[in-house]
Amino acid sequence: MSITTFKPDTSAQLADTVTWALSAGEPLELLGQGSKRGLGRPVQAGYALDLSALSGVVAYEPDELVLTVQAGTPLSTILPMLAERHQHLAFEPQDLGPLFGQAPGGGTMGGLLASALAGPRRIQAGSARDHFLGFEAVSGRGEVFRAGGKVVKNVTGYDVPKLMAGSMGTLSALTEVTVKVLPAPEDTRTLILAGRDAADALRALTRALQSPHEVSGAAHLPGPVAGRSAVTAVAGAHAGVTAVRLEGFGPSVAARVAALREELGADAVLDRDESLALWREVRDVTFFSPSPAMAGEGRGGGNGLAERLIWKLSVPPATGARVAEEIVMALGGEAEFYFDWGGGLIWLATVATADARTLRAAMGFAGGHATLVRAPDHIRATVDVFHPQPRPLADLAARVKESFDPRRLFNPGRIYAGV
Questions:
Q1: I want to staple 317 with a disulfide (CB 3.0 to 4.6 A). Which of 132, 179, 214, 343 is the partner?
Q2: pLDDT digits (tens, 9 = 90+) for 55-65
Q3: Whole-angstrom Cα distance, residue 306 to residue 100?
Q4: What pLDDT score was predicted for residue 303?
Q5: Hey, CA dihedral for 32, 38, 39, 43, is it positive or negative?
Q6: How far apart are CA 309 and CA 267, in angstroms?
Q7: Which candidate, 346, 369, 344, places its Cα nearest to that of 356?
Q8: In what order do the strands lie in the sheet with 172-180?
Q9: How far apart are CA 299 and CA 320, in angstroms?
């Protein structure tokens, strides 16, 4: 199907485009750089709204730890700018472009917040929505509006930015966003425990997270997954690898590493560069992203990674090992997984024939939810990509959609069919 694309340069032009779509009764697919277009259900729209021209830094106040940018500003511009001032987005934004077969380093700030993706540091720093302070947007009524503010303690009444985070562009078209930034850690080290099975690994991760040592990353990679790492100490373990990250000022990190290494009986400690490389892999699901490097080095190019469905399972951390084992058994062993967030997040790669109902039934006892992150369009169009909502929550979501976008203009069906 041929798609006509609108590319407004200003909020006023964007509002005019939405007003036209309202009068014409034409839905719009919202796009930034398209790096997350494969996330969610396929959008059925004859027109696309390209927001990438709404780009540029509006205000950056390093001393106040606040950044305001136009929503289409590339992350490839923002992240180096923050790094120059030794600051960062503490929720550790994911770069899932390679998982969808795209080049790394893509995405915009608006797309990042709309998808609410966060990396391993979420267990310490919170999610993307916790750092989202304010925004300007155009609603599905064609109205330009603002919500939130440009300082941390400037929100009264309903905290609408939290509502926009994770809405996948179904409520409004963001034009400008304000986020909280934080000082970047001076040093990073990672404790490595080799040879633990899933249950033992989660017990070690729980112990680390309950310690006073301020752990900022807690993951477990089963042997076949660890073997795909580009970090020599991880791939060379030839066994499952349990990783615990500590960050902060150099002397503090060194003291905490020494104490926790003794408590956990860790086998090795990764230096800063090795740690950064490993946690990028964990963050970006690199282990399930086929790449020329992996194929050339024999670390997964021939195991069908490109054809596998990728699931993100959020569960109570204590149940992570049991949930993963139940799912692998239910799928006849045709699955791979690894843990993040101390066991609370399971990344799962399954064969394309895996049934969503079987997977969700296997994890049902845990009280978690499952999101289908990567799949061919025909599968994403026919299954529940996002976990089905209980009726009261679905009714509430429908009322929120009605408030912001009553004519269903923006990304129709992106989250749930008919919404």
A1: 343
A2: 999 999 999 99
A3: 9
A4: 53
A5: positive
A6: 33
A7: 369
A8: 57-61, 66-70, 172-180, 132-139, 144-148
A9: 26
